[in-house]
Amino acid sequence: MRRGSHKLSRRLFLLLLYAVLTAGAVVMVAPFLWMVSTSLKAPHETFMLPPIWIPEDFRFENYAEVFDRLPFFRFLLNTATIAGLVTFGVLLSCSLTAFALSRLRFRGRDLVFYILLATMIIPAPVTLVPIFAIMRRLEWTNTFLPLVVPAFFGGAFPVFLLRQFFMRIPRDLDEAAVMDGCSAFGIYWRVILPLGKPALATIGLISFMGAWNDFFGPLIYLYSIKKQTLTLGLATFQGYYATDWHLLMAATVIVTLPILLAFLFSQRFFVEGITMTGIKG
Amino acid sequence: MAACGGEDEDRRIELRWGLWGTPEAVQNQRRFARDFMRLHPNVRVEIEPVAGDVTVAFSMRLAGGDAPDVLYAGNWFLFEFADKGTLLPLDDLIARDGIDMGQFFDSALSGIQWDGATYALPEAINVEMLFYNQDIFDRYGVSYPEPGWTWDDYLEKARRLTQDTDGDGRTDIWGCYVWTWIPGFLPFMLQNESNMFDDDFRRFTMDDPRAIEALQFIQDLIFRYRVAPGRQALQSQLSIDMFASGRIAMGSFGYWGVRELQGAPFRWDVAELPRRRTTGNVVHVHSFAINRETEHPEEAWELIKYLTLDEPAREVVYLIPAQKRIAAEMIRAGNEGMPANAEAILATATDPNTVSPPFGPRFGEYSSVLGLELDGVWLGKVSVEEAVRKAKPQIELILSE
Amino acid sequence: MARKHYRNEIEGYLFLAPQLLGLVLWLGIPMLAAFALSFTHWDLFGRPEFVGLRNYINLLFHDRRMWATLFNTAYFTAGTVTLGTTLALLLAAAVHQVSFGQTLFKSIYFLPVICSMTAIAALWRWLFSGDFGLLNLYLERIGISAPDWLNDTRFAMPAVILMSVWKGVGFPMIIFLAGLHDIPAVYYEAAEIDGADRRRQFLHVTLPQLSPIILFVVVTSVIGCFQTFDQIYMMTSGGPMGSTRTIAFYLFENAFVFYKFGNACAIAYVLFVLLGGFTHFSIRLTQRWVHYQ
């Protein structure tokens, strides 16, 4: 009898959980549905009350208009190039750093780690002007370089996550590799990188997202329209006077969709990666 | 990137053109650049549109010595950059080429000239107009605004137009709408013969009784007579959408409203703003300026002349062309969508009391202080007197720095 | 630990070379430059003019706006971190319990994290609008009379907080899920044998086991929140009446709107010291109760 009621309460509890989670999921998704719905509306439908969730005609022309007004294909290509290079740079440089900080032992190692952590508390806007001056001196303005090159020089948060993950890889593997005559680089290349795939996927996606969504970097460094990115195109649609909401939302969908697909494809890897980093203070 | 096409090899001079605006304007300006290159085979024009924060992007580039040769400017930041010595004064070139500045609206000139120097050629202007929904006026038997109408007429109409259509105790149609930022409230101050600063730009004069009366009138529209929406007042963008959905009977919006309201499901027209002691209106001026450090001042000058005096001057979107003749032609052509009383737009643009707001150097900082104090007025939290009294020393300190 | 690490000084620094170079180039030099500039008046265009400690003295003793922004920042941080972390923890615990649809829930809650703030902020400005906002429309349908969020000094900050939590909750949730995954089942079995109900299990097993992760999430969120800029810049510009002006936004205004770059740098260093102090003390203090395995 007790066991039965226990089961029943377990069922009720689960039902309640599903109800709460579903309600929450609706709150999370509704703004996106509104975004897609608005992007397919005729201008006069956007402010109708009560709100229209399913437009009378699906106006796919809105999307054509966005591509017509600004070179969004070019923006897409540029954004993908930048985000791809940034991701590659972060993966390469941060895995090297994280490897050294987790698997090698040398003087000053922990100091470097703490300095790196401390850099997370530097407010970004203040370094904007000095870094701009450096980029200008290097004659890198109006190229992808100011956005891409720093990624090849490490970063605090990805290094932190990767270090946590690498520390959990059994050390016996290193020793076995040393027996086989591997150098430190050999351990990095043959042992740590292959085993670190889930964590690398996680870092990769985070970096890709960051570069894809970056607004201020492109605003400041990319002058020529041929070199600009999606977020800049999107910002142009937020009008100076009035906003054409249906076009703005169509542009938003165009910017969001690729990153959404990237996430859905890497989603399994991604969650697994964070799970396995097992962040501990 | 090196040019590798055969055609591009002759183009030894590269002009960088910094611009911004709606996607449609950017699209047009790309075309103008191509047309200009066709006329000037030795010049290659590189388009550099700025999305979002124009002033940040332009200041970084100007301060870093990496700015475009030609800059698209608005009067709300032109003088800040001129004051920092980054722009080429154009008076000598204007005199040399005998350009008749009288062909532009005087109000346009007020937005490009500072301390006796001219820093740009004007492309277009934008004045505030009163837009009104004729269907709502007819429904409640209110007569349309007439030339020479006054604040009293305005208030009286607004009171009769404010309606709670479904009887739930909440206003469904607002009689009027005033944007509570400088372009919204300054016309009222000008109409009452007051302004924000004295002529030397040293003294802050919004504590003048006439200025206070004007601001008080707007605050009263919201809180005393309850004929204007308080919510939304701080954001103009959604308010034109509110007008477009038939929930505001009269609203003052920029001329761009004409474009925005095409296809609206009701009849509407424009009128001059009401007057008090006199008329008064403000103008936004869009113009083209030249970077002082440009290596090609002659070509840059050719480009901005082309943009403001040649074909492109006829293809202004969203705004009123700065050339009087072109503006008149455009407005009188009675194109589809142009309101019946379009003549009022011309009358406003030529009115001597239609002027550029005091967007001087340091505008960024004093407008921030002013906005903060006035927010309290528009939210009904502080009196007009108190807000301007608190703003005055802070703003005069900024001007004296 | 008795086991020997692979030990080599030169190789260690070879691996670190890119990172160290990056630290110097993109952080060290700019931070030093900013430090030097914090003792000057500089309008970005002319020559910096040395003024000693004047910027710091002005900021700390004469600038009312500075204190207001500090308060706003603390408000935003407290609200976002408390609400965000609690919600993320509860969501993680809930998602961890269900098996069917777990991946779907995880993805859905993570969805806003991957979107650009530029896109999200415009959308939410609209959703929050008093007259057209869907939020108020639906709140009113269920009988809640809602304020005009972004135009009300009392509700603008809560609105920004709500939006930020909505946007960001997925990330700590995933991290907590990872932590929950790691708690050995035997602990729960033992608790069940002791007769602990779900609430007690959560309080006495889950929370202590997760405490290092909670610390991590709280510290990194506080650091992130103290630097909050994008939402403010894109949704409220600090208004109404300065009620949402955060310290990072004020720093930005000083640099690029007021053209007082020296001031901006001084603000950055005040912020830097505050955050450094916070991080140091929070780690010190919490080491007492955080449970390490």
Task: Give a nutshell description of this structure.
The complex is a heterotrimer of chains A (281), B (401) and C (293). Chain A has helices at 2-39, 61-69, 72-103, 109-118, 124-137, 145-148, 156-167, 172-179, 184-195, 197-213, 216-221, 230-236, 245-277, and one strand at 104-105. Chain A has 281 residues and is an all-alpha fold.
Blueprint of the fold:
The complex is a heterotrimer of chains A (281), B (401) and C (293).
Chain A: H1 2-39, H2 61-69, H3 72-103, E1 104-105, H4 109-118, H5 124-137, H6 145-148, H7 156-167, H8 172-179, H9 184-195, H10 197-213, H11 216-221, H12 230-236, H13 245-277
Chain B: E1 13-19, H1 23-39, E2 43-49, H2 54-63, E3 70-74, H3 75-83, H4 91-96, H5 106-109, E4 113-114, E5 117-118, E6 121-133, H6 134-139, H7 151-161, E7 174-177, H8 182-191, H9 209-223, H10 237-244, E8 248-254, H11 257-260, E9 268-271, E10 281-290, H12 297-309, E11 320-321, H13 324-332, H14 343-350, E12 354-355, H15 363-378, H16 384-400
Parallel strand pairs in B: 1-2, 1-3, 7-8, 10-12
Antiparallel strand pairs in B: 3-10, 4-5, 6-8, 6-9, 6-10, 6-11
Helix pairs in contact in B: 8-9, 13-14, 15-16
Chain C: E1 6-7, H1 9-37, E2 40-41, E3 49-50, H2 54-62, H3 64-97, H4 102-110, H5 117-127, H6 134-141, H7 156-168, H8 170-182, H9 185-193, H10 198-226, H11 230-235, H12 247-256, H13 261-286
Antiparallel strand pairs in C: 2-3
Helix pairs in contact in C: 3-7, 3-8, 3-10, 4-8, 8-10, 10-13, 12-13
Share in β-strands of chain B: 15-25%
CATH superfamily of the domain at 47-99 and 170-286 in chain C: MetI-like
Main β sheet profile of chain C = 2 strands, antiparallel
Task: Give the helix level of chain C as a range of percent.
Answer: over 70%
CATH architecture of the domain at 47-99 and 170-286 in chain C: Orthogonal Bundle
User: From the 3D coordinates, which CATH architecture of the largest domain in chain B would you assign?
Assistant: 3-Layer(aba) Sandwich
CATH class call of the domain at 47-99 and 170-286 in chain C: Mainly Alpha
Mean pLDDT of chain B: 91
Distance between the termini of chain C: 16 Å
The average pLDDT value of chain C, as a whole number, equals 87
Oligomer: heterotrimer
Strand content of chain C: under 5%
Which overall shape of chain C is indicated by the principal axes computed on the Cα atoms?
A: globular
Number of domains of chain B: 2
Order of helices and strands of chain B: EHEHEHHHEEEHHEHHHEHEEHEHHEHH
How many alpha or pi helices of chain B?
A: 16
- Taken in chain order, the helices and strands of chain C follow as EHEEHHHHHHHHHHHH
Could you tell me which chain pair has the largest interface and how many residues each side has?
A-C, 96 and 93 residues
